[in-house]
Amino acid sequence: MSVISTIAQPLRTLWFAQGQRTQGKLHVRDAIDIKRTMSLVWLCLMPAALFGMFNLGWQAQATLTEGAASPALWQLGVFNQLTGGLTPDTGVIGLFFYGASFFLPIYLTALLVNLAWELVFAKSRGEALHEGFFVTATLFTLVLPATMPLWLVAMGISFGVVVGKEIFGGLGCNFLNPALAGLAFLYFAYPEQTAGVGVWTAVDGHSGATALTALLSDKDAFDNTLWYQVFSDAAWWDAFLGFIPGAIGETSTLAILIGGGILLLTRLASWRIVAGVLLGTVATATLFNAIGSANNPLFQMPWTWHLVTGGFALGMMFMATDPVTASYTDKGKWAYGGLIGAMAVMIRVVNPGQPEGMMLAILFANLWAPLFDYFVAQSNIKRRLKRHAL
What we know:
Elements: H1 3-13, H2 34-65, H3 77-83, H4 92-125, H5 132-142, H6 150-162, H7 178-189, H8 191-195, H9 211-216, H10 234-241, H11 253-265, H12 271-291, H13 303-308, H14 312-319, H15 330-350, H16 358-389
Helix pairs in contact: 2-4, 2-5, 2-11, 4-5, 4-6, 5-7, 6-7, 7-16, 11-14, 12-15, 15-16
């Protein structure tokens, strides 16, 4: 198989069915394959990606309104030539293309580097190239700040694909989510570029904080606030809709839930994992609310705020439900999801130096997923042996 045909295969099969058909007597015939699965997941990520591009422009325009200087960044060369630059009067379409000026370079870098590594390993193993690199590159792009240097994008996706996936056998054999593995590498190796204060708004020389960081410094943010009272808070609705600084595709909980809901309806994502994450979050957040703290306002943070801040929603709907790295058994999925929800809240609250806990919680749960399945299988074996012994 030539290099050109190896690259062209997943692109061609996105639009055309395979020419080969199974023959003989079969027990199962199913139209769902890797191509359709990855294509649908990619499409479900588009609401978050499209809103993220608009929000990048909207946040930048807001800083200009506050008196910030007009940005002079290399990503905006084409945008400035076509529109004359970002102004307080730039419309919705202009704001969208402003954000696309940052999103597309990062996405194309992640996609091409990911494709290059997939091609290397596919050729070395004599295997076909699968469409999974589309989803991995998209997820990795959505969890990055818009100001991430492209060389760091290449390094992060390389680490995630090679170390988190390919060295364990490739698609279906990895035990860590490759997009999160790449993000974790950047998070600890280059913290200023990945989670620094000034990386979340795509303008030149502007400093701003994410919602989690801002809430951490506000000791009066949740005084006597109950979980159901946040629905009358305009700031909570801004966070739910996505009009807050943050990573490219993590800000709009609504857009993420739309795409994630389609995954649940098509059963490509497990509702048990999502429900387990929610239950773990509610239980742990409620426990911290009851304990309280005079110095750490996140102890009083209701679970409803955890849901709409940071990468919680994207992690719950798209990362935690990754069928390769999650538990396979039904009971194991409940335990796996519950562990993620509990760990995410615990990391956010107990370790305020790292207020974003969803990434670390999912990677930690990835390590426990096989153990959950093992314990469930052993329990079933013991129960059946006991039943037959009677």
